[in-house]
Amino acid sequence: MGSDALPFSQTVLLRLGARVSCGITQTGGLVTYNMILHKSSHTLFRVGEMPTSRIEAFSDGVFAIVITLLVLEIHVPQVQGKDVAAAMARSLLAMTPKFLTYILSFVLVCIWWVAHHHLFHVLRRSDRGLLWLNSLFLLWLAFLPFPTALMGDFPGERIAVMGYGTVSTLAGVSFTLMRFYAFYLAKLVDESIDRSLLNSAILKSALNPVLHSIAVLLAFVDTRLSIALYIILPMMFFIPSKLERYVHSGQTGSPS
Fold first, then answer.
1. Are residues 52 and 125 in contact, defined by beta-carbon separation less than 8 angstroms?
2. Degrees, nearest 5: CA angle 106-112-117
3. For helices 158-180 and 128-143, what crossing angle results, to 10°?
4. How much is the pLDDT for 12?
5. pLDDT average, residue stretch 202-228
6. Tens digit of pLDDT for each residue in 89-148?
């Protein structure tokens, strides 16, 4: 054995210490990795803060297209025979459900557009999560022309009436989720606005899909009850919320 050789006991202790040190390093690296992974998943959708201008412009374009698609589902009647005027009058009268359904959906889209405008008026920025939730809302909004045409052609059929209400319900749920995310999760709203006003706005948003889902269930009793509730619902949301009145009054802070 060389003169610089260590005793057996010291060699074992050194090797054991190296392994322990290596284990601590690996464990520490694993903990650090898990912390980074948790943080990344926690902020997966809350990254890339940006202005709201582009999301508003894109959404306005979709709203305009949806309104255009609604009227494209109404076609000029084809009439024949000697008495064209009488035949046309009968055809137009038969198209009354299509006209009424178009007006209903037009008003509904306009109410959504006003609500969307007011929502983004109180936001100071947007992020990746808001982009995706807004896209989810636009998904159901863009699908609205189909159930509109379906209910216009078959106003007495349960499946057509329920389909219209289901799409409206899903649009309301997605809009409420977007508002909840912006107000409470990502905190994209103006911090000077009182929380009670935000709570009031959330409750009003949640009321929309709840009432539409009730209208869908009423179709099992009578489709006319569902259609009546579809007509009443937009009237309820013509009235500005407390948050809308408060913000547009130019005040900040807590309401008096």
1. yes
2. 125
3. 160
4. 44
5. 95
6. 888 999 999 999 999 999 999 999 999 999 998 899 999 999 999 999 999 999 999 999
Are 135 and 175 spatial neighbours (Cβ–Cβ below 8 Å)? Answer: no
- Number of Cβ within 10 Å of residue 45's Cβ equals 17
The three-state DSSP-derived secondary structure of the chain is: CCCCCCCHHHHHHHHHHHHHHHHHHHHHHHHHHHHHHHHHHHCCCCCCCECCHHHHHHHHHHHHHHHHHHHHCCCCCCCCCCCHHHHHHHHHHHCHHHHHHHHHHHHHHHHHHHHHHHHHHCECCECHHHHHHHHHHHHHHHHCHHHHHHHHHCCCCHHHHHHHHHHHHHHHHHHHHHHHHHHHHCCCECCCECHHHHHHHHHHHHHHHHHHHHHHHHCCCCHHHHHHHHHHHHHHCCCCCHHHHHHHCCCCECCC
- Tally the residues of the chain: 256
Residue 182 pLDDT level (bands cut at 50, 70, 90): very high
The amino acid sitting at 171 is A
Q: Name the CA dihedral angle for 83, 84, 86, 92, rounded to a multiple of 10 degrees.
A: 160
- Position 154 scores a pLDDT of 95
Kindly list the distances between the CA atom of residue 52 and the CA atoms of 57, 79, 90, 127, 184, in Å, as whole numbers in the listed order: 9, 50, 49, 9, 17
CA neighbours closer than 13 Å in the CB half-sphere of residue 233: 30
Instruction: For residue 251, report the phi and psi dihedrals to the nearest 5 degrees.
Output: -90, 165
Buried b (16+ CB within 10 A) or exposed e, 144-156: bbebbbbbbeebe
